[in-house]
Write a structure and sequence with these properties.
The structure is a homodimer. The first copy, chain A, contains 15 helices and 15 strands. Chain A is of the alpha/beta class. The first copy, chain A, folds into 2 domains: 244 residues, Aldehyde Dehydrogenase, Chain A, domain 1 (3-Layer(aba) Sandwich); 148 residues, Aldehyde Dehydrogenase, Chain A, domain 2 (3-Layer(aba) Sandwich), CATH 3.40.309. Chain A has a 6-stranded parallel β-sheet, with helices on both faces. Chain A has a 4-stranded parallel β-sheet with strand order 5-4-3-6, with helices on both faces. A 3-stranded antiparallel β-sheet of chain A has the order 1-2-15, with no helix packed on it. In chain A, helix 2 packs across helix 7, helix 5 runs parallel beside helix 6 and helix 10 runs parallel beside helix 11. The first copy, chain A, is globular. The interface between A and B is large, with 68 and 68 residues.
């Protein structure tokens, strides 16, 4: 209770400072924001030894899995990549320099809808240190102040990285409160952030399912979250077999742990007898395992039988659910029932069927003849992303600089009054 | 507890039906959606006697204030206005027919960002029966299924109106579950809606401050809410006095109870001695009362003294707070400290100062030489609005058809795989 109060008090102060900072930052010219980004990158390069030493402290105290350890670990090359990421953000177009609409009403009132920062963003993430640097850079460029709460395992690293951010802000003459980190890694601070209605305008969680679910369940602040990516690749009867093999191998196996990975193959019964054995052989060679329905096992009896729950499982590993369908209707129906509206693809040479698929799925990203692993801000041309949104308001899909903005109206009159 | 469970079960069924209906509605051609709107309007005209009889039952049981009674009461003209509102929505452009962006990446992937319905919307409103009809029409046109929970005082009216909506859906061949109403007016149903994460995609509350605050506090679902409209009109030293008088009288007194009404006058000290007495005299003649700072009372000693809380008060009645400022800096500072980022106006002939004001306030609507009462979807040219959004994600200001949509990406390739 006492800790809770302390955390809440700290957040109140941090958020008030962030609000003031966001007003200055939101009106800072592009050149000021870019020079801060470049100064942050330089400071990070200059501080590289300190950052690595801080990371060594985190690693020394760490006792988790090898894959978690790999995400936590920094190297000189990874520090340089973070710095380069900030320089890259400085090169991107200004998301605040956009007039999104302009019109004049019969009474002469002239309306302009212009882009504007969201305000103060809370970022809650697990222990990959680069997420803090990327998020700081994206928020800064888009004019938003950010309060970062990283995982406890990476706290020393986060502090060292934040010092470089603050040095960059100072050199550019921007308030240090533009980029703040939580004072400690108590869970009470997360609770304070989730309860921070009116203090934070948006919370972005980045991490595993349990973190995201906790944030969505408890937050009193709008949340832009990435939930599940239960993605399908549908190989239609009129697919080019060579293309289908290349796409499926990439969509499933390029990286199995990313949210854009394909989890279920749907294949038309007309093409399954000839093509499914080739698809399975390709994937098996890459180390993939399978859960197949009865029709697929009629063709390849050695496959493990799928149960219903398999089609609702986001594997995030080298396992693929397989179902044979009788055509696009059944494919769309399966995706509507089992999908997570994240990313779904069709492989076909039939453009009418493709258009039916693109219009027929509710997925935030629907692809025709391409790998589901293209669901990524960089691949979309956004330059960088802060995450993928799976909700249905504000933004869907990759969240880049533009998605970190909102808009307002500027209305110019000549003395109009409302009748 | 038993009631809670029953409400939750009903909501689960209603939301599942709404989800299925939304998939059909979201893909229905514009002509189908428009013909449903016109059939709804016809059914409402044909059912006018039934709707008025149901409304008479509500009025007979009603024992509240006269102004509440007026909002609750229907007349033949008000029923016709609701029907006309639906016909008007049918005339508006299709918000789903918009391609919001289109580009091709160096690897040949072609991206299209297209408008899409949000999905299933929950609307919680107080007892103005027309809100249910308007919301039904706007949601239908934008491809969203809606579940309406109106105030208990208007339940008979809401049911009768909903019958006309359903008749329209039936005639157009659309699922009846596109527009549903709560089965009763138990508060447990509101609780079920607020807890309906995954069932509802968005909740829009429309009503008094306590309703909106409860929704914002308890909702586990994204909320698009209208909070406070603590709006300012700033009369700059270079204002045209005649224009300033006309604008202020309109901004404050056209209707005092609307969210776009001006609550505080800020006036430059250079112009106050000559202009303030005229502004006050105009407003006093219209029945307005005042809370003024010391500088204003030096000019007009008969004014009531303002205390600090007055500048934080959304009057929504014929009272105006007045403060004399020493220039635009102090005006912007006052608005940042006391405003609600809703709607703020400047009156000046100096275009540099005006631009400084428009860029300097965070208001969702910033006006130059026009009345704050223009903050309205109809006045913006949206045709109709479901409310005003005061949050900082998804939408700010009037929420019309376009703001009831989101987007998704259609990506077309030729076999691209991700390196």
């Amino acid at each position: 209770m006492h800790i809770e109060t302390e955390a809440t008090q700290h957040l109140h102060r941090a958020a008030a400072a962030a609000r003031d900072a966001s007003r200055i930052l939101g009106r800072a010219p592009l050149e000021t924001r870019n020079s801060a980004l470049r100064a942050m990158a330089s400071a990070m390069r200059a501080d590289s030894d300190n950052i690595l030493a801080a990371n060594a402290l985190d690693l020394a105290a760490f006792s988790g899995s090898a894959s978690f350890r790999d995400r936590l670990a920094l190297t000189p090359a990874r520090v340089e990549a973070m710095a380069q990421g900030l320089d890259d953000i400085a090169e991107l177009p200004d998301p605040l320099a956009r007039t999104l609409g302009e019109w004049t009403r019969p009474n002469g009132l002239r309306f302009r809808r212009v882009a504007q920062p969201i305000g103060v963003i809370g970022m809650i993430y697990e222990s990959r240190p680069n997420v803090g640097a990327d998020a700081s850079g994206l928020c800064l460029k888009s004019g938003n102040a950010v309060i970062l709460r990283g995982g406890s395992e990476s706290h020393h690293s986060a502090r060292a990285i934040n010092a470089a951010m603050i040095e960059g802000l100072r050199q550019a003459g921007l308030p240090e409160a533009c980029v703040q980190i939580a004072p400690n890694t108590d869970r009470a601070y997360v609770a304070a952030m989730l309860g921070g209605a009116g203090l934070l305008d948006l919370i972005i969680p980045r991490g595993g399912k349990s973190l995201v679910e906790r944030v969505q369940r408890e937050a009193r602040v709008p949340v832009l979250a990435h939930a599940e990516g239960l993605n399908h690749t549908y190989v239609h009867a009129a697919a080019d077999p060579v293309m289908a093999r290349a796409i499926l191998a990439n969509a499933k196996m390029r990286r199995t742990s990313v949210c854009g990975a394909t989890e279920t193959l749907l294949i038309d019964q007309a093409i399954a007898p000839s093509l499914l054995p080739l698809l399975v052989a390709d994937l098996r060679e890459l180390g993939c395992d399978f859960r197949a329905d009865a029709a697929a096992r009629n063709i390849l009896p050695e496959l493990t039988a799928a149960n219903d729950a398999d089609y609702d499982t986001e594997w995030l590993e080298a396992t693929l659910s397989i179902r044979v369908v009788d055509g696009i209707g059944q494919a769309l129906d399966h995706i509507a029932r089992h999908g997570s509206e994240h990313t779904d693809a069709i492989v076909t040479e039939d453009s009418d069927i493709a258009e039916q698929f693109l219009r027929g799925v509710d997925s935030s990203v629907a692809l025709w003849n391409a790998s589901t692993q293209f669901c990524d801000g960089g691949e979309f041309g956004f330059g960088a992303e802060i995450g993928i949104a799976t909700g249905r308001i504000h933004a869907r899909g990759p969240v880049g600089l533009e998605q970190l903005t909102i808009y307002r109206y500027l209305v110019t009159g000549t003395g109009q009054i409302r009748p």
